[in-house]
Amino acid sequence: MSAPEPYVGPRPFTLDDRGRFFGRKDEVDETVSFVMAHPVVLIYALSGVGKSSLVNAGVVPMLREEGYAVLPPARVEGVVPASINPTQIANPFIFHALYCWLDTSDVPFCAAEEVTGMRLVEFVDAWLKARPTSEADAPPVLERTVSPGYTTATATGSGISRSGA
């Protein structure tokens, strides 16, 4: 029986691939240090060089080990649900990210219609308050892809908006 292939192919590594994500320890350590020390960290490189893999299989697991609550990746695109009036959406990029997180949250804390005018910090505050106390003490880390070639990892403490969103 042969050993499993260490590479996942043309898709990014995920959290589940952490065990076979290797060779980028320095980049993971440096990125985690930046996220812990700075309110916004921009990871910029050519498409396909592994930014999402670095965050998914390296940075996110390490931050979770450090006690950070980490929201899943969110796409800032999508279809507006029929129950929501598009003219009520204050910022479509923020709306789609928040709606994605709301849709994947295991802790129900607000209705989809409520995120149409929410700011990022308001959403994070509501999310933190709805989580079990042991997890609510850790600042959340948000990861989103803003366009090909750019990934941001943003650390935001409860009640503090550091991203300008």
Properties at a glance:
165 residues; five-stranded mixed sheet
Task: Report what the structure shows.
It is built from five helices and five strands; from the N terminus they run H-E-H-E-E-H-H-H-E-E. By secondary structure, it is α/β, with parallel strands linked by helices. The protein has one domain. Strands 1, 2, 3, 4 and 5 form a five-stranded mixed sheet that branches. Helix 1 crosses helix 2. It is globular and about 55 Å long.
Gyration radius over CA: 17 Å
The best one-word shape is globular
Structural class by sheet pairing and helices: alpha/beta
Q: Specify the number of helices.
A: 5
- Percent of residues in beta strands: 5-15%
Q: What is the rounded distance between the termini?
A: 51 Å
Provide the succession of SSEs.
Answer: HEHEEHHHEE
Number of discrete domains: 1
- Number-wise, the strands total 5
Overall average residue pLDDT: 78
Helix content: 25-40%
Instruction: List low-confidence stretches.
Output: 144-165
User: Biggest β-sheet, characterized?
Assistant: 5 strands, mixed
Please give the structural blueprint.
Elements: H1 25-37, E1 40-44, H2 51-65, E2 69-70, E3 74-75, H3 92-104, H4 120-130, H5 133-136, E4 140-147, E5 150-155
Parallel strand pairs: 2-4, 3-4
Antiparallel strand pairs: 1-5, 4-5
Helix pairs in contact: 1-2
